[in-house]
Structure formats: structure tokens, C-alpha cells
Amino acid sequence: MNSTVKMSDIAKALNVSTVTVSKALSDKEGVGEELRQKIKDKAQEMGYKISSVSKAMRTGRQNNIGILIAQRFLEEDSYYWSLYQNLLVELSKKGYFGILEIVDAKHEKEMITPRVILENKVDAIIVVGQLKRSYLKHIFTESGEKIMFLDFYDLEIPVSSVIADNYNGGYALTRYLIKQGHQDIVYLGDIQATTSIMDRGMGYFKAMLDYRLNLRTEWYINDRNEEGFLIEPELPKVMPTAFVCNSDLAARKLHKVLLEKGYRVPEDVSLVGFDNFPNDHYQIGITTMEVGRDKLAKSAIKVIDNILNGSNTLEKINLVVKLVEKQSVKAR
């Protein structure tokens, strides 16, 4: 595809004037619909790119997309830092720019509108991770409803969302452990923190019920404090043979605690995680569910594009996940 194609090249190819091409591509009057479409098709065929400035002048947009992420999800080696980078790549492909604003606890508690919205810096908002429902409703109103949720959803707010298939992923991870001979299995994750963590936990719960395995109340272990930041988990008094962790980062924190307590992975205890978040320097590969950050990002940008093009259709996109076997599970 030639990025140096000019309007004059399109005009020459169709034997029309450059002015006619300009009017057709900017949707101005003075060009018949049939010719307009013919010009647009030829422009696409030749690889013509409308500059971001021209597009902004024509549409009245700034081509900026706000990305809001809670501070509690942006710890070192955070999955969401990586997902943010994927979003920037996909936004750039569509001619958009991403503007990150980190939302702290004070914003949520005091209903402080993000600056990107308050100062009219963006055309739409992507909320990544999850924020408190009351604050989400506030943002929904302040953004003019041009907003979508990534990696979570809220059934009380009419907003499009893109998520991984967390429920079936949690189920498949638990079933995998059961097929490896494990029966005493713990779920690690604060199910009140995000819909993703809850749905993964519900998948675990369903698998345990389906295979008629014992469920202890103490076998749901919290991995976050009251502010939502990750903490080192406390091991249960009755140790299981395996843990289903809500994320790879949570699994690594648990692995550290297990080693400190003298447990070997996978010889004594097996672990599975979620996300397939890479860490080449970590001492053991954790069996996990591949979510595909690039697919999440691509789907999110398609939704944003639809919103900015006037679509009122609520989209609930649920992406398939895939089991990735590594070294953290041993058959019993």
C-alpha cells in the first residue's frame, strides 16, 4: 500500500478533477452519490490516507481517545500497562491518539471528573480494569455516553464492553486440574474486585460442583486489600493440592509465599493462572489461560470506532481463551 498517494493521483485515475475528489472524500455537496462512492473505492484501492488534521476538520473530532485505568491496577509488571500499550498500537492504526489518565481512590470517592473529560481533550473514553459503579455512572454522564469498558462489564450501566471468556476460562482451568488428579483445589482472588475475577471464580465454583468435589468456605482466598491493591495471600490452614489463581501476577505472588513456607511447585502444590502474561525472568512457567491482549485491544478500538460513527448498538464482546500448559502443574 502506497502512503504517498495524493488526491491528484486519484483524480487522474478516474479522469475527474482534484476538486471533485476532495469534495467526495470530505463528504461535501456537489458530487453525485454514485461518483462519490466510486472515488472512495478508488482511494481505498490506491492506499490513500486521509491526514488526521483533515479528518478532524471534516468530522469535528480531535481523534484523541481517553484511557482511564485505576491506580490499583498499575503495579510493577502490571498486565494493564501491557494492555495499554496494545491499545496505543491499535489506536494509531486507526489514526487516533491515546491519552492515559490514572484514576486514584480520591477521584472515585469524591467523584472528581477526569481531566481528559473536564477539559474536552478526548472524543471518547475507554475504561480499563474496573472502577466503582458510582464513579462509572458519573463518567458515563460526563462523557456524553461516549464510553466503553475493557476487561470488565457492568449490567447496570448501558455501555458496550469487551472481555475475555472468564467464566469458561475459570471452568477449564479447574477441570484441567481435576483431570490431573487434583480434588482439593483453592481459588485465589477477590471476587468483589472486578467482574473478571468474579467470573473466573464462578467458573471454578461450577467445575467443582460438576465434579462433586468438596468446597470449603476458606478455600476462597483474598489477594487484595480494602483499597484494591494486591497483597501476599495467606495460606489456608488445610492446604490443598492445587490453586486456581485469578491472574498470573497473583499466581507469582502465591508462588513466592509457598516457597517461603517450604512448599515446592509443582512437586508439592500445583498452580494455574490467567492472562498468559509474559515474564521471561520468572523462575517457573505458570500454566495459564491465554487471553490475547492484542485481540482485546483490536476489539475495543472497533467498538470505539462504532461509537464515534454514531452507532447506538450496545456491543458485548466475549473473546475465546485458550489453555497454555507450562511447568506449574504435576499430576497426582
TrEMBL record:
Keywords: DNA-binding, Repressor, Transcription, Transcription regulation. Residues 5-59 form the HTH lacI-type domain. It comes from the Bacteria. Pfam families: LacI (PF00356), Peripla_BP_3 (PF13377). Gene3D superfamilies: 3.40.50.2300, lambda repressor-like DNA-binding domains. Transmembrane segments: none annotated. One of its GO terms (molecular function) is transcription cis-regulatory region binding. InterPro entries: HTH_LacI (IPR000843), LacI/GalR-like_sensor (IPR046335), Lambda_DNA-bd_dom_sf (IPR010982), Peripla_BP_I (IPR028082). PANTHER family: HTH-TYPE TRANSCRIPTIONAL REPRESSOR PURR-RELATED, LACI-RELATED TRANSCRIPTIONAL REPRESSOR. This is Purine nucleotide synthesis repressor. It comes from Acholeplasma hippikon.
